Amino acid sequence: MEIGSIEKVQSKADLVAFIQAFSEDARKNQGGWENVDLPSFLSALSAWLADCDGYLANQGKPPVEGQDWRLWATALWAAKTYE
User: Which end of the chain has fewer surrounding CB within 10 Å, N or C?
Assistant: First the structure.
């Protein structure tokens, strides 16, 4: 999976496909992942989200605004038990 895949996400269906490919990459390419266990991954996700506006500014992109953060919290929580 390449970072360019992120730029292709324009819809819910694109995000679903991205997450599926991301999951497959985690299975096949663990050597390319620094955070291979779930607690490490979630910790890194939390840290990155806390600093994402700085990351985006360094990329010349605007800060994240208008996101449905509660939807993402719900999705993460639901994935704990969803089959």
Answer: C
